[in-house]
TrEMBL record, chain A:
InterPro entries: Na/ntran_symport, Neutral_aa_SLC6, SNS_sf. The gene is SLC6A20. Pfam families: SNF (PF00209). Na(+) binds at A22, V23, N27, S251, N283, L402, S406. This is Transporter. It comes from Otolemur garnettii.
TrEMBL record, chain B:
One of its GO terms (cellular component) is cytoplasm. It is found in: Cell membrane. It comes from Otolemur garnettii. This is Collectrin, amino acid transport regulator. Keywords: Cell membrane, Glycoprotein, Membrane, Phosphoprotein, Signal, Transmembrane, Transmembrane helix. GO terms for biological process: calcium-ion regulated exocytosis; insulin secretion involved in cellular response to glucose stimulus; positive regulation of L-proline import across plasma membrane; SNARE complex assembly. The lineage of its organism: Eukaryota, Metazoa, Chordata, Craniata, Vertebrata. The gene is CLTRN.
Length: 592, 221
């Protein structure tokens, strides 16, 4: 008797799974950065256009393929065309690389979460130096939050060549992160479905609480006004549109096989068109919502820095000229400076080089993305709030939920094709298979816990998924529309779901979306080629800031290998299938 | 004559306490910054209190137990509020070495701060470094405790899930093997529609709903 394919208990679980997977850390730490860099409020225009033209159709396509074929990515693409099983394999390879490096973020979230139960928060004070006369120099040069991130958490080495040793604290947190992921995927869709309720809903609760707190912070309105003031001239910049398209593309997690895997556990009659629209709208809405929270936090932090800069200048002038304490305030600073310059010119010229020009705009202009935003900027803002332990725990728990939700999707992308394959599932029960996958990824992930681990993390983060996913989705769209045949696919969908495909979707699938992906692909390639040698940001402990360095040749080789190993799967498997067919035809002809 | 003596004494005093003088320390207070509206004005009485605190600190040093308030000299009081001070010996001709004054102030810094409702940042003794409070260092870092708790919970949950999965599978295997046994028994009989054809062997039998039940065959009266 054939074992029935496991299914979601109800369609809501499927929607929550997709939301939990799509709404990840990118919504929190990349979208606000893009919004700030490319015109604030006006960035929403290209973003929403790209959502309608690119995000929704491609999401619908993947969900439809998965639901129709009822198999993981490898099986699904092999059914569409035997020459295209390479697409599925490429998706699995990319997901595998992603699993390797993504979980270290959860390890860092655990680390910060466990450290949030102290008073004062460990990243709010600098540790003392060895003879207790002052603070550590690295901490003085940078800030206490940067010191805690770069020294206490990562213990980062000055360059990628110096690998250093495995940090046992980070290794422990990584093992815990993998055990948590294993716990969630252990029983397949039965258990994953229930966890998805939690990982999908909890981040929204925390974001709402943070919105309430963020909007009431001193200086939050500065950040919000700065962000949402539209800078219309950015609309003419092609980079704005390209970044909007890329953000939509990667934020939805297209091409990794997770969406196909999730949809394959659906009932064949499920209305995935409605679900595709809902998921993509919720994903974008979450990005915008998260950026409101982020910008009120930015505004708070920038205002705080600006005021402390002003206070330092005031103190400097008060001490140098022995003025009465409290006489100099922010409002009369400029006129008093003018008076002092004229009354005591020689002394003023001595003090002048030390006076910093404090500007609120320059504080707000410091745009940060990625781990820097999540672990440095946010923790700096949190340490200044009242009851900072509570806010810290909430925030890092939310990061953890977002990260684990995405990890569940990534592991599903790998495990579904493996459990579909009869060869493997006959010998290994799915608990052992999931355990093996988690174990291998955990072992490789120890690379990222070394002292140079963060540099390797940046390599994986920047280069694993970009070109490969664009190529994969391009081949997917062309495969469904032209190899399988759009009419055939349309009639299949109509037979199963009873719904006709409108000309809107057909036009986008066949024409607009592939063109968009091709142009994105060429943009990325030309960007890499024009940039020449690739560089990275290394932490300089003596200066307390990041410096740019070139990648050594072996790091470049690893980058090339990462990109090649996934993209080459497609032509290689196609060639392999062609050769097998040819051999089989050669065997068959004498018999006929 | 007296006037000459007085001017001589003040002149000597003036010489001893000078901005940048030997063994002299500059003090800077930021009372408005620290206390805001509750700030007090810095007047001669506050200066007297300051001298008293310095003399008190010096008395804690061996061989200096006889320091009097009059041995502490203040000069150059500015609007800031900042001033210089020196501590003289009993003859009032020489100033005490800076090292002694420094160690005295450092030992009693907390009490001096508290008397004026200030802290290390708002009552500054330039050139006297503050001793920073050592950080709290519990024997077991707190994060390890929380890590241990979370780790054990996850391990227990995983073990429970794996074990329950194994039990379920064993029960299913037993059911399957029972069904297989029944199939074996039925080998001599025909199997129709996949139903083992010896219902009398199984508990409860098998009810074929196609036939009406006994009760319904007889129409009610």
């Amino acid at each position: 008797m054939e074992k029935a394919r496991p299914q979601w208990s109800n369609p809501l679980q499927f929607v929550f799974a997709c939301i939990s997977y799509a709404v990840g850390l990118g919504n929190v730490w990349r979208f606000p950065y893009l919004c700030q860099m490319y015109g604030g409020g006006s960035f929403l225009v290209p973003y929403l256009i790209m959502l309608i033209v690119e995000g929704m159709p491609l999401l619908y396509l993947e969900l439809a393929v998965g639901q129709h074929m009822r198999q993981g990515s490898i099986g699904a693409w092999r059914t569409i065309s035997p020459y295209l099983s390479g697409v599925g394999v490429a998706s699995v390879v990319v997901s595998f690389f992603l699993c390797m490096y993504y979980n270290i973020i959860n390890a860092w979230a655990f680390w910060y979460l466990f450290h949030s139960f102290q008073d004062p928060l460990p990243w709010s004070v600098c540790p003392l130096n060895s003879n207790r006369t002052g603070y550590e120099e690295e901490c003085e040069a940078a800030s206490s939050t940067q010191y805690f991130w770069y020294r206490k958490t990562l213990n980062i080495s000055p360059s990628i060549q110096e690998s250093g040793a495995v940090q046992w604290e980070q290794a422990l947190c990584l093992i815990l992160a993998w055990l948590t992921v294993y716990l969630c995927i252990l029983r397949g869709t039965a258990s994953t479905g229930k966890v998805m309720y939690f990982t999908a809903l909890l981040p929204y609760c925390v974001l709402i609480i943070y919105l309430g707190r963020g909007l009431t912070l001193h200086g939050a309105t500065n950040g919000l006004m700065y962000m949402f003031t539209p800078k219309m001239e950015q609309l003419a910049n092609p980079k704005t549109w390209i970044n909007a398209a890329t953000q939509i593309f990667f934020s939805l997690g297209l091409g990794m096989g997770s969406l196909i895997a999730f949809a394959s556990y659906n009932e064949p009659s499920n209305n995935c068109q409605k679900h595709a629209i809902i998921v993509s709208l919720i994903n974008s809405a979450t990005s915008i919502f998260a950026s409101i929270v982020t910008f009120s936090i930015y505004g708070f932090k920038a205002t705080l820095n600006y005021e402390s800069c002003l206070n330092k200048v005031i103190l400097l002038l008060t001490n140098s000229f022995d003025l009465e304490d409290g006489f100099l305030t922010a409002s009369n600073l400029e006129q008093v400076k003018g008076y002092l310059a004229s009354a005591y010119p020689s002394k003023y010229s001595e003090v002048f080089p030390l006076i910093k020009n404090c500007s609120l705009e320059s504080e707000l202009d410091t745009a940060v993305q990625g781990t820097g935003l999540a672990f440095i900027v946010y923790s700096e803002a949190i340490k200044n709030m009242e009851v900072s332990q509570l806010w810290s725990v909430l925030y890092f728990f939310m990061l953890l939920m977002l990260g684990i939700g995405s990890m569940l999707g990534n592991t599903a992308a790998i495990l579904t094709p493996l459990t579909d394959s009869k060869v493997i599932s006959r010998h290994l029960p799915k608990e052992v298979l999931s355990g093996l996958v988690c174990l291998i990824n955990c072992a490789v992930g120890m690379l990222f816990t070394m002292e140079a681990g963060n540099y390797w993390f940046d390599i994986f983060n920047d280069y694993t998924a970009t070109l490969s996913l664009l190529l994969i989705v391009l081949v997917e769209t062309i495969a469904v529309c032209y190899v399988y045949g759009l009419r055939r696919f349309e009639s299949d969908l109509k037979a199963k779901t009873g719904r006709t495909l409108s000309w809107y979707w057909k036009g986008l699938w066949a024409g607009v979306s592939p063109l968009l992906i091709v142009s994105l692909f060429f943009f990325y390639l030309s960007d890499y080629i024009l940039m020449g040698t690739l560089q990275y940001q290394a932490w300089d402990a003596s200066q307390g800031r990041l410096v740019t360095k070139d990648y050594p040749p072996y790091a470049l080789a690893v980058i090339g290998l990462l990109v090649a190993s996934s993209t080459m799967c497609i032509p290689l498997m196609a060639l392999g299938a062609f050769i097998m067919r040819h051999l089989r035809k050669g065997d068959a002809t004498p018999v006929a | 004559m007296l006037w000459l003596l007085f001017s001589l004494v003040t002149a000597t005093h003036a010489e001893l306490c000078q901005p940048g003088g030997e063994n002299a320390f500059k003090v800077r207070l930021s009372i408005k910054t620290a206390l805001g509206e509750k700030a007090y004005a810095w007047d001669v009485n506050e200066e007297y209190l300051f001298k008293a605190m310095v003399a008190f600190s010096m008395r804690k040093i061996p061989h200096r137990e006889t320091t009097e308030i009059s041995h502490v000299l203040l000069c150059n009081v500015t609007q800031r509020v900042s001033f210089w001070f020196v501590v003289t010996d009993s003859s009032k001709n020489h100033t005490l070495p800076a090292a002694e004054v420094q160690s005295a102030i450092r030992m009693n810094r907390n009490r001096i701060n508290n008397v004026f409702f200030l802290n290390d940042q708002t009552l500054e003794f330039l050139k006297i470094p503050t001793t920073l409070a050592p950080p709290l260092d519990p024997s077991v870092p707190i994060w390890i405790i929380i890590f241990g708790v979370t780790f054990s919970i996850v391990i227990v949950a995983i073990t429970l899930l794996i074990l329950s999965g194994m039990w379920q599978r064993r029960r299913k295997n037993k059911e399957m093997s029972e069904a297989v046994d029944d199939d074996d028994k039925c080998e001599n009989f025909t199997i129709e529609n996949g139903i083992p054809c010896d219902p009398l062997d199984m508990k409860g039998g098998r009810i074929n709903d196609a036939f009406m039940t006994e009760d319904e065959r007889l129409t009610p009266l």
